[in-house]
Amino acid sequence: QAAASISQIKMTENRSAVLGLFMLMGAMIDEQLIAYYDQHLQLNALPVQSESGLRTRRNELVKMGLLRDSGKRKKNLTGRDCIVWEVTK
Question: Would you call 73 helix, strand, or coil by DSSP?
Fold first, then answer.
């Protein structure tokens, strides 16, 4: 039942913008996603999204099978190990 509900998630403009950034920039942690998104927001007329919204869209893309845990970890600015997310092949 859970798998069926995940497959019903539509590719919205916000999800598409996040996926497109991963395709452009490559694998990254959420902190990088937020920084790169903010940089590209002005240049590419991306939809405005909050930091928590970007994490939510990334999580939805993981559930849709479009992004995955790369198995790598990278430290964020506070020194915490974070999952490096990547586009599925």
Answer: strand
72, 19 contact by CB (below 8 A): no
Burial class for 56, CB neighbours closer than 10 Å (0-12, 13-18, 19+): middle
Residue 57, token pair as written in the block: 């869209």
The residue among 71, 79, 72, 85 whose CA lies nearest residue 33 is 85
| Sign of the dihedral through C-alpha 28, 31, 34, 37 | negative
Q: What's the whole-model pTM score?
A: 0.85
pLDDT tens sequence across 40-64: 888 877 899 999 999 999 999 999 9
